[in-house]
């Protein structure tokens, strides 16, 4: 009997993790490919890129596409524009006719990974931010994550924009200057504070990841106990917790203990001195305290989002295998970074 396989694709706006797993959930190959940028790419371009990455991971693993029983495509923005959703779903289904194809928003696989498919809520806080949950009945709800420009509250992009505002206020004296002012000046080698305007408009604002990267300067300021940086982190946590509470109300969790987990770069420290301590003190600890006040039980992430994508692929393609796959992954999970395809 041929081995049975499942593919989980967890895509962000710039990168996507491709995970190939056996029927018991064991990951046999993991690679990093190009992400899905709906706002700047056509569906044909996206599907062609996905096809290339899938072909590569299968070829390197010695697996035939006919052996793949289910594929989960987790894409950012999915579920927000019906016409575009239908277009890419049909294109992927037509491309992979011999398997069960399931297309969803990447927040679902973040939830499936962090809670290993258990009822509860996961909040993603990376470049963007969104809370997603499911209850015992399988009902789902989400909050936040509408768009970078006016939503994604609490995310690194949101914090990056706010960091720009804090610098401008400290520079002209609307608020007292703190360590952030000198950190930003040194980072961009500014001779004149107003040079910051051109640098941001020309080099930073056009790229979401660069805006989100400003959060690292905020982290440095928090290490040096800049009160405005610390307050901004707390404001971000309040926004994330508000989204969690909204999802909890929608799913009927309010008033009963329920699981909450998290994922995304906001909860991870940078690699410079003092960053780990700062993130624990100003992000992770207050987040845990706020979650507890909601009456929720904080669950440290059990699996990565790419594991979640595999579990969703199995759930949709062969649900009778799901429990065993969850047991396999949660028992022996050693999270690794995917390799470039």
Can you tell me about this structure?
The chain has about 350 residues and is an alpha/beta fold. About 45% of the residues lie in helices and about 20% in strands. The strands form two sheets. It has a six-stranded mixed β-sheet. Strand 4, helix 2 and strand 5 form a beta-alpha-beta unit.
- Please give the radius of gyration in angstroms: 21 Å
How large is the count of helical segments?
12
Q: Report strand order across the widest sheet.
A: 5-4-1-2-3-11
Global geometry: globular
Helix coverage percent of residues? 40-55%
Element order: H for helix, E for strand: EEEHEHEHEEEHHHHHHEHEHHE
Main sheet overview: 6 strands, mixed
Q: Tell me the span between the first and last alpha carbons.
A: 29 Å
Low-confidence stretches: none
Structure in a nutshell:
The chain is an alpha/beta fold and 341 residues long. It is 47% helix and 18% strand.
Topology:
Layout: E1 5-11, E2 15-22, E3 27-34, H1 43-61, E4 68-75, H2 82-95, E5 100-105, H3 106-114, E6 120-125, E7 129-134, E8 140-143, H4 156-172, H5 179-187, H6 195-204, H7 208-213, H8 215-223, H9 227-251, E9 259-263, H10 275-293, E10 297-298, H11 305-317, H12 322-332, E11 339-340
Parallel strand pairs: 1-4, 3-11, 4-5, 6-9, 9-10
Antiparallel strand pairs: 1-2, 2-3, 6-7, 7-8
Helix pairs in contact: 1-2, 3-11, 4-9, 5-8, 8-9, 8-10, 9-10, 11-12
């Amino acid at each position: 009997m041929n081995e049975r396989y499942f593919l989980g694709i967890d895509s962000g706006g710039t990168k996507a993790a491709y995970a190939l797993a056996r029927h018991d959930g064991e990951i046999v190959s993991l690679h990093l490919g190009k992400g899905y940028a709906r706002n700047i790419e056509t569906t044909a371009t996206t599907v062609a890129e996905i096809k290339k990455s899938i072909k590569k991971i299968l070829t390197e693993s010695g697996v035939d596409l006919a052996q793949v029983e289910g594929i989960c495509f987790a894409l950012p923005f999915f579920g927000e524009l019906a016409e575009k959703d239908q277009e890419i779903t049909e294109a992927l289904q037509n491309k992979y006719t011999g398997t069960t194809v399931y297309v969803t928003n990447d927040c679902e696989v973040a939830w499936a990974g962090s809670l290993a498919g258990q009822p509860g809520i996961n909040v993603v806080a990376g470049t963007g931010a969104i809370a997603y949950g499911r209850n015992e009945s399988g009902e789902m709800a989400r909050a936040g994550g509408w768009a970078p420009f006016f939503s994604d509250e609490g995310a690194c992009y949101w914090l990056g924009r706010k960091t720009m505002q804090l610098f401008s206020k400290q520079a002209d004296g609307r608020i007292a200057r703190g360590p952030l002012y000198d950190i930003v000046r040194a980072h961009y080698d500014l001779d004149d504070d107003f040079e910051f305007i051109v640098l941001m408009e020309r080099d930073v604002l056009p790229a979401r990841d660069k805006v989100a990267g400003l959060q690292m300067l905020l982290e440095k300021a928090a290490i040096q106990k800049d009160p405005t940086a610390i307050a901004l982190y707390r404001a971000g946590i309040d926004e994330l917790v508000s989204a969690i509470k909204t999802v909890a109300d929608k799913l009927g969790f309010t008033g009963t203990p329920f699981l909450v987990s998290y994922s995304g770069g906001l909860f991870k420290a940078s690699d410079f001195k003092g960053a780990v301590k700062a993130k624990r003190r100003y992000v992770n600890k207050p987040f845990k305290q706020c979650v507890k006040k909601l009456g929720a039980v904080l669950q440290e992430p059990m699996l990565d989002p790419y594991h979640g994508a595999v579990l969703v692929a199995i759930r949709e393609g062969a649900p009778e295998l799901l429990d065993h796959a969850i047991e396999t992954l949660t028992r022996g999970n050693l999270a690794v970074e995917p390799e470039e395809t």
